[in-house]
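Review the following:
>
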Amino acid sequence: MPNDLKLRESDDIQGDVIAGFKKDQMTLLFLKFEDAARARTWVKRLEPQVSTTRQVATFNAAFRKAREASGGDDPKALKATWLNVSFTYEGLRELTGKDPLPSAKAGSGLEAFKQGSDKRALGDTGDSSPENWLFGDGKGQTVHAVLTVASDTVQDLHAAVTEQREACAQAKIVIVFQQNGATLPGTRRGKEHFGFKDGVSEPGVLGFDEPDPAKPEYVKGKHGTRLIPAGEFVLGHDRVDGGPHEAPDWAGNGTFQVVRRLAQDVPGFWAQVGVQLKVLKKAKVVPAEATIEWLAARFVGRWRSGAPVAKCPNADMPSSALAGEDNDFGFRNDPEGYTTPLFSHLRKSNPRDGLQEEPGHPPFDENPVMDRRRIIRRGAPYGAPFDPASEGPGGPDSPRGLLFVCYQSDLVQQFEFIQKSWIDSTAFPPNRPKKPGPDAMVGAAGTVSYETPGTTTELSLSQFVATEGSVYAFVPSLTTLRHLGDGRLTDKLPSDVRPTDSFLPIPDLQRDKGKSWYWAYGTGSAGPVCRTISIADGDEHLDVRERPDRPLTTWPCYAGVTKVDAILPVPDEQRINGRSRFWLFHTAEGRQVYRRISIADGAESGLPPEQAGAIDLPDRQLSAWASFSGIESVDAFLPVPDMQRVGGKSYYWVFHTMMGRQVYRLISVADGAMHQDALERGDRGLDLWRSLAGITRVDEFLAVPDMQRINGLSLFWVFHQDKYRIIVIRDGSAHEDQITVEDRPLTMWKSLTG
């Protein structure tokens, strides 16, 4: 492959978007979140399973090579199961707790996404009305996410879907609907239920598909397949017109997905073709030998094999050696639609080089006018093939149709434009003496104009395709998906506030000359960092950034740490012989572990890193703590103010996430070399804390340095997402708590901005 096909190497773009799963079996799970915290945990666990463009492209290339070597047979030894996930606007809002698109412009694709397809007037009336949908109606069937599972075999698909259904159940996620799809069997393989080859005219993508050396605007080996700039399908990349996307930065390497369940009336379609053929023969505007197949091909624009009517007007060529060139044609020489009717599905969904402003005018340039309307189509048929003799699957009333999936960077200018302005519009192509009518294959019921030299014959068609479900969703990049697991959309909080992963009080700089110093840990695009800040005593508690961010890799005691989850001072080993010890909790290979580190006095005064900090005990599993039974990951510690080093023990409230929901328990740690720990009270919900009302997850607590045990009261800053509040805890057995300062934006901390 040429070196400039950089998109093939992307580990950030989900795999189905550009590379395409191309599997025989697929299932879409339409999901509704019942508990936002658990849903975020589900996202975290799902993210490593989501396929990337690099993975799918590499597999597809190996599969294609093996297939060519075997003479066209699918290689049995090459199998894979892929996952991708997307989120509706409501789903993003549920995960982040706020409006992800507060400034979507009227008429924009972002507004369309925000509104949802059920409110977008897509011609879904009558039987296709949203109130009849199986999913996505915007009312009782709210959809927050769409999980795509695709595999080569039924067995592997079923195993993967079962695994994902169980994961959803654990996270309190409701499966609103499950839609299965599969390649049709036998001679129907590669075709949709009406019997026509599907997916022939997919566009190529610049930077992913190899260009033809002789015609660089086309894909090599696929004559007629135009290369479209990647920005028409993936946000943040070059577009046809060179203009920027309106989407926010967090949407980069993501795309918008349309999912529609389209029921197909197969017997109705073919019956109508037969009826209309009689009308045309009576009018003597078609050859006497014209058959139902002949007319159906004109409704579609292709024969069953995929051969275009434009190149093969008289008969199908199912065994043609030129079948690979079924996309190499145009309509420039047929502007009136005498060969391929203007109402045919092919011309309605992609006019190619045959679109005129009005009869007699030269056609528009296919590039860029048509290129900016392209979409990438995926999906699959669902249901059993039509068999009029069947009493079970395949019978006339058996559900069947097309699971339509497409990707684009602008819902309004791409999918909606094609659907509203082309397919459903009776007056497209424009300015004709007689309106062409709606798309004869997938459009609404209506009259179409069959044009022949000097004559126009009107045909009355029923509707053969009905919408039974529809969703607009956003397919995030892997980077944004990771952020969504933390309840945000970017690695930066508003106004560039740095996340507050954890704080470590610098041992010899507490209440020193009216200031207390801390190392504040965070994770940014460049990796884990440490920032030095100070907080002054006094009513204002002025905070200052004392030193800029430093990568953790500069300190040997943080070797292998990619994110500091929590830190707990060893209670009886603070400033002993010039060193203080801490338990540091971090995640390694998907599992939280802890180590013990020591920090020397003077560490902030210029000591070499290897002297300032050291690993005293290497990483160990959480199971080494008797009080941590059942804990998968510690989120934060809160010391019980009046129970530190009392009777040789120190008590802490430990906040941790269990089954997607943050809870807390009370533990104790004894003084002494063994530091024996004990569970003093089991897990309880955050709702028992009056001071934590409205918080579903605490990120970190920080003691207000000069307000500890003053008149029996201790104050703490509570950090949660992009906000903080101040709470007070009273000494005594009840440890009564309340809010003293309501939530404020984290931007008020000057030391944590920038």
Residues 493-497 have pLDDT under 50 and may be disordered. The radius of gyration is 32 Å.
